[in-house]
Amino acid sequence: MSTSLRRAPAVLSAIALLIVSGCAGTPDRDATGVPAPSSPSSTAPTAPPDPAARAAQLVATLADEDLVGQVLMPYAYGNSATKVSGGSAAGNRKLAGVQTPAEMIAKYRLGGLILVGFSADDPTGANQPTTNVDNPKQVGDLTAGLQAAAGKLPAGAVPALIGIDQEFGVVTRISEGVTNLPSAMALGAGGDPALTETAWRSAGTELAALGVNVDFAPSADVLGANSKVIGSRSYGSDPKAASNQVGAAVRGLQGAGVAATLKHFPGHGQTAADSHKGLPVVKQNRKQLDSFALPPFAAGIDAGAWLVMAGHLDVRAVDPGIPATFSRKLLTDVLRTELGFTGVLVTDAMDMAAVAEQPPGQTAVRALNAGNDLVLMPPNVAEAYNGVLAALRNGSLPRARLVEAVTRVLTLKFRLADRPRPEMSTLNSTGHQEAARRAAAAAITMLRGGCGAAPVTGPVTVTAANDRGTSRDRLIKALRAVGVKVVPSGGKVVHLVGYNDGTSDLRADAAVTVAMDTPYVLGRARSPVLLATYSSTAVSITALADVLAGRAKPTGRSPVQVTGLPRSSCPAS
Fold this sequence. Notes:
The chain is α/β, with parallel strands linked by helices. Helices cover 36% and strands 11% of the residues.
């Protein structure tokens, strides 16, 4: 590995002391398994200020059952913690043998839950069996209910981890009533880390207001292949530029009190295969990984990222045939020792096809033994919980390894515990909308055409591939708002293409073709004007309308190379 990526690993002294002193022993408990209260004459120890020391102190009070629960982060069915529909109750019974999310937390003493959901064009939709997200008030009530349930646990001195995949772009769980940023690739096209940091701070503040304290973002994957599963979720194909963007996103999110997660270690952008469907093979040699895939992870760690997500990837140069999720060579030797990461290591979803063939209890133990601290989305909560508990008791999962994992999880929780929750009025605030607008405007890229005037004049007809009616309607409205005449037919055609569209989705007669996801398809378009927004969010469509009307210049540069086209046809300012 290159010298610039090597760091001396920092070891949490509290964890070391904890393991050496054997503080994972079980304290006196009443018949219910809850720790017995201290006698009135005893003096309670003063809580140390350092999160790691506080975590070590709390771990010393936890029973085996609590330790196991703290390293599990499943999903649940239902849009409320305590009141769910019959269908959601049935889903929870199949998943965990309980009726509600609150009961799941109580029974398995969980470290947290992930909110799940799905939307059009979502490449992660294969393992999103339900949705917990309807609107901001519902999400806020749900997270409050989850925290109330977690507060009754022996580990309830700290908040539960409430996570979500809010990447923006094609992977966006909450879209209504909140500020929507453009995609990561759009931010990469803008090329301004300061804009990225401001935008992510706005988004993080809104997540915190909703009660979400962990975002499984940003993607630190450098795009080295035309990957449909990563695609516009990546900041681009240049490791240095992507590193700058990843660091900015981390600082923005965590500056707002939401833990950022670097994913998918050691880099899912090196393969076009989809780990939701099988185990992708990463064929790059170690030197290529060090120079191309790992820099954004190193940059995110330098920026202070509190979590890293392990990818379900067969990295042939390091540990051939073993998914990175289960590879000590990758997770402990490379990530911990070489890159110096000391935070929480979380698996990618364990219900994905790449790792879901073995029993949930077995895979959870394998993941923990490899160095993961949190097991995300096990396909059966009861089996995962019982498997880890049995492994702890028979010694196949060393107690010291589990204590280390739980201490890291609780350290993160103590870091989050004292962060004030913003008011709901911060959602969609003017300042946040402006941050998103500026980021979207900076992204608009012209890959073919002149930059001195409006790209199209006269009446315009807007068309879109694959029934992308929402985007088409948004653009029509935005164009009319800036004075462009839009007609149902007969005008100069502005054609929109998006996620997963190909050559057959282009229009040969289009005066302008616009890519609202990765721009690769533009290399096969015949239009005299080619533009890219990299995103179909409302702010991106509005920014596109400003460029089409000649009110703004397309200042972005494509963060990936499109065959036969420049990064921008506009001269650099």
